[in-house]
Amino acid sequence: MSTDLFSAPDYYQLDELLSDEHKLIRDTARDWVKQNVSPIIEDYYERAEFPKHLVPGLGEIGAFGPYIPTEYGGHGLDQISYGLLMQELERSDSGLRSTASVQSSLVMYPIWKYGNEEQRMRFLPKLASGEFVGCFGLTEPDYGSNPGGMITNFKDMGDHYLLNGAKMWISNAPFADVAVVWAKNEEGRIWGLLVEKGMEGFSAPEMKGKHSLRASCTGELIFENVKVPKENLLPNKSGLGAPLGCLDSARYGIAWGAIGAAMDCYDSALRYSKERIQFDVPIAAFQLTQKKLAEMITEITKAQLLTWRLGVLREEGRATSAQISMAKRNNVDMALKIAREARQIHGGMGITNEYPMMRHMANLESVVTYEGTHDIHLLITGMDITGIPAFARDMPNL
Ligand code: TGC
Ligand code: FAD
After folding, report:
1. Which residues are near ligand 2 (CB < 6 Å)?
2. pTM above 0.85, yes or no
3. The domain 135-232 is classified under which CATH number: 2.40.110.10, 3.40.50.2300, 2.130.10.10, 2.60.40.1120?
């Protein structure tokens, strides 16, 4: 891959809204990405392999548990810092941001919020440094958008729980040291269980054949009479609201991350349009190219403002789940459209691995689906403004 020349657009001088610490965290992550990720990412993507050797470095730049308190090995940073880190990681590849999102918001967050002190001390420092990698098992083969229907279950056997069922589409599952698994007890109540690598009856085969998020490793989680020690149940929250609470944090990170992918595509298209000559002029001189570029920077700027404001509200504990849904939905859709327009500006070269658009575009097809699909987030907004849930309906007579 050629040298990473990325230069971040900041059309509304949003840097002025950031503290010196925010800028330091962001710039450190940006430099780390340029040095360690940009030179290798296309190769790993093509080979459909997650660059595992980057995990300790992700820990060092603070990408694992940025807002988890330092007493648990986290970094005690604010929500804007967390967002900026996700932006910089997804600027390189959604798969890398996925790993940081899952580790921080879907594994460390529930252990921190719903776990006891012993569980926090046992797992959080190792997850923060990258010594441990975690995964989050909510989705099942028959229950994706509707996780409340899950079948995975556990029984109280006196001195342990017996876990049975299967999860699908689980990021980092095949090499995770610990899985936060959501399962129903005998009363049908959902709880989180910490399932550890090597437990008898637990396997995590890799899912192959993805055309998207290829530099991320995705797998199943299969539980066949797994004996889970009682001390591995997260005791402080149960019900569907527990996993959905983790998703709020991860979806917020994705809203920032998608801006990173969009910025990378825009930056590449702007540079290319000034260099590429057709009809004796740079293609940037054509009104139709300018229209594409002007619309891209407008959408990026709107997303930056939306997301920065969401970060402030979240830091103050005032952001609602529906506000997070709006930002996740808007920003991922925006990034997908920009990836496509940027690809067009690059002409035929745009489909090659010399440029990042096709990789971002393919990745964003996963991002627009996971953590709640585009349409589920629209329905969350619809429910929020009308007060009427439109997720489920009676089975029609076909
Ligand atoms: P509903 O009855 O609306 O809610 C059940 C309970 O949950 C509460 N709740 C929330 N709590 C916290 N945060 C949220 N965002 C919440 N949304 C709802 C709600 O108040 C209620 O609490 P209580 O106390 O009254 O019981 O539930 P529903 O079954 O009607 O479903 C609603 C719906 C469709 C919005 C929800 O199920 C949903 O969000 N579905 C999408 C599923 C999803 O996002 N899956 C993501 C899997 S993880 C993943 O994709 C990781 S990708 C990782 C990567 O690589 O980055
Ligand atoms: P379905 O729920 O079957 O949806 C299919 C279509 O129907 C969608 O267009 C959807 O919008 C639409 N639809 C469904 N319900 C409604 C409705 N009520 N109204 C209107 N339209 C509706 N999950 C995890 O638990 N952990 C992970 O780490 C994880 N990582 C993932 C990584 C990747 C690469 C991918 C692709 C997925 C991952 N997921 C993970 C799963 C992801 O969260 C689900 O794919 C997602 O929630 C959608 O579920 P589904 O694929 O079963 O689609």
Report:
1. 102, 135-139, 144-145, 169-171, 213, 218, 366, 369-371, 373, 375-376, 379, 391
2. yes
3. 2.40.110.10
